[in-house]
Amino acid sequence: xxxxxxxPSYYQxxxxxPKEIHEKEHAFELYMFQILEGQPGGNQKIVVNPNxxxxxxxxxxxxxxxxxxxxxxxxxxxxxxxxxxxASSTSRYSYFLTADILFTDERFKESSLKMVGxxxxxxxxxxxxxxxxxxxxxxxxAFNYKETEFVPAQRIARKVDIRIFSRNTxxxxxxxxxxxxxxxxxxxxxxxxxIPPAPQRLESVTIGSGDVIDSLAFSYIDQVGEKQxxxxxxxxxxxxxxxxxxxxxxxxxxxxxxGNFGGKVVVNSLKIVTNLxxxxxxGKGNGIQFVIPENDNSSVVGFHGRAGLFLDxxxxxxxxx
Length: 321
What we know:
Blueprint: E1 19-35, E2 44-48, E3 59-67, E4 77-87, E5 94-103, E6 112-120, E7 125-133, E8 140-151, E9 155-171, E10 180-186, E11 191-193, E12 199-209, E13 213-222, E14 227-234, E15 239-244, E16 251-261, E17 264-274, E18 278-282, E19 288-292, E20 298-307, E21 311-320
Antiparallel strand pairs: 1-3, 1-9, 2-3, 3-4, 4-5, 5-6, 6-7, 7-8, 8-9, 10-21, 11-20, 12-13, 12-15, 13-14, 16-17, 16-19, 17-18, 20-21
């Protein structure tokens, strides 16, 4: 088994990360006009002619037109078939065609289809669509044609039905990293309070406070983009204050104190520090000071803790910036 080679600088393996594939089906009804060399408005030219029977080996460049109606002089040209055909049979007039369908109208301008296959004059048939660009990236489909006019040595008209499937990949945004749970800090009274949907951004915080922090409530955006609310956690005492954060505002620090109140340890005071402002302090109690998170590169996106008649303990959910 050969050793795996290191990728050169000009190459990279693409495809890491989740993607969505969008598939569209396109259908066109057009008319294609082939005007032979030497005729007014001629749109093909012989470049190699070995003068063999059935024109075998003859190479012709083409610039046929596709119109949105059957009258090439009055209807709109929406695309051009540009490529070459090669006479490929020793027993009849049969041609191998490879060409680009280059759209010129505003709706599909700069998009194209790659067409290939064999055809014969005065017969209906089908060519393959094997690729495309622009709106028709990764296209696959069929180019069906039916001859509507044949004037020997002058012109050929065909009604064309094109049916293709094109695929476009859209790279999905990365899955948000689950936030880190810090704490809680404070006492062990009350009940555990928490949020089931993982948060990604705080929208508002409501604090009830008097001598200590009576209650905490907040709203947040979860990791699937839905708005959620939590609380109030605690009792109904104290004065209530709601902080609504600006769209560009992120909570950087939760500061406060914990200490004894009425015989048990609770959250005595809180201060909220954002990238734009500082709110508080709320509560009057003294006690042991705390600052969460310790990391300056984090943002607070949600809370958890313990609560009964008061906010007994507080913890946060933090994400790295």
